[in-house]
Write a structure and sequence with these properties.
Number of strands: 13
CATH superfamily of the largest domain: DHBP synthase
Number of domains: 2
Largest sheet: 8 strands, mixed
Distance between the termini: 31 Å
Shape: globular
Strand order of the largest sheet: 2-3-7-4-6-5-9-10
Radius of gyration: 19 Å
Oligomer: single chain
Order of helices and strands: EHEEHEHHEEHEHEEEHEEHEH
CATH architecture of the largest domain: Alpha-Beta Complex
CATH class of the largest domain: Alpha Beta
């Protein structure tokens, strides 16, 4: 079982592990990440093997400041920078053209890189003390329910990693919004707590449109048809629909969307912990944060 560490000594232990080429669990405001030093290709490859993740699936690189963005990326547009000035640090990832020196292990073989500046103070401390960005997808088995606590990480990956830095429960609870600036107009590849409406409003001040219709092969995490999935079968219902009376639990995500997002993955994990085979899910309306919740729940329910 992975050792859960806390405080300054925990930060030190995690940074030393990263310097040795280990992969570690660390907190962000969205979900917990499985982090590796981006300068170490063997460590990056270890992320894929621990998660069981396809190597063509890009990793999100987490940074501590804008200087690290400019080291990793080339040709970042003024509209992109304007968006980041407002939304960073925070739950927004941008896909931009990668600098030549960036490992293509990190980018899934592409010439673009996904970058985020997390708001969680412990994540920033780890990156600053390490002196380099970290690649950090969600710290769970590929396709399964994302972790929002250190214990979730230890339970999922404890046989394959040694350390998890405990930063408490994740404040947001769903993965970051992803906007692809390597295409014109920019596209939302994954909805999150920073909504399409908010992003479009910012970009419009800089004469830039926003597309919400991503297409083609997976260019970012979370674009697979089935993802974020518990073992339980989920049956989705719109708010106001009649619900079956079959004894299966009913999970409602149609009120208090901020709280619903924060506890989404915890509630899905509880189904599996209780060995519940089937649950009914009431979806939120498709607007604002509701888009992100519907995205996660639709993918969690797909394919069963």
């Amino acid at each position: 079982m992975a050792h859960i560490v806390t405080g300054d000594s925990g930060i030190h232990d995690v940074v030393e592990a990263l310097r040795r080429g280990d992969v570690v669990g660390f907190p962000t405001e969205t979900v917990y990440g499985l982090a590796a030093d981006i300068r170490n290709e063997a460590a990056l490859q270890r992320i894929f093997s621990v998660k069981g993740r396809p190597t063509s699936h890009p990793l999100i690189v987490h940074i501590a400041d804008f200087d690290q963005l400019h080291d990793l990326a080339v040709g970042v547009s003024p509209a992109c920078l304007a968006l980041l000035e407002i939304c960073w640090p925070g739950p927004l990832t941008v896909v931009v053209s990668a600098a030549p020196h960036v490992s293509r292990v990190c980018t899934g073989g592409r010439d673009s890189i996904a970058v985020r500046l997390p708001a969680h103070p412990l994540a920033q401390m780890v990156i600053r003390e390490l002196g380099a960005p970290v690649a950090a997808p969600s710290a769970n088995r590929f396709g399964h329910v994302s972790p929002t606590s250190a214990l979730h990480v230890a339970n999922d990956l404890g046989d394959d990693i040694t350390l998890v830095l405990d930063g408490g429960p994740c404040a947001v609870g769903v993965e970051s919004s992803i906007v692809d600036f390597s295409v014109t107009p920019p596209e939302i590849l994954r909805p999150g707590s920073i909504t399409a409406e908010e992003i479009r409003a910012i970009l419009s001040h800089h004469g830039t449109d926003l597309s919400t219709s991503s297409h083609g092969p997976s260019r970012a995490p979370g674009m697979m048809d089935r993802h974020y999935a518990p073992r339980a079968r989920l049956v989705l219902h719109e708010a106001g629909d009649p619900l079956p009376v079959d004894g299966a639990p009913i999970l409602r995500f149609d009120t208090n969307l901020v709280d619903a997002a924060r506890h989404l993955y915890e509630r899905l994990r509880e189904l599996d912990a209780r060995h519940i085979p089937l649950a009914h899910v009431v979806l939120p309306t498709p607007s604002g944060l509701g888009f992100a919740l519907r995205d996660r729940l639709s993918k969690a329910a797909a394919g069963l």
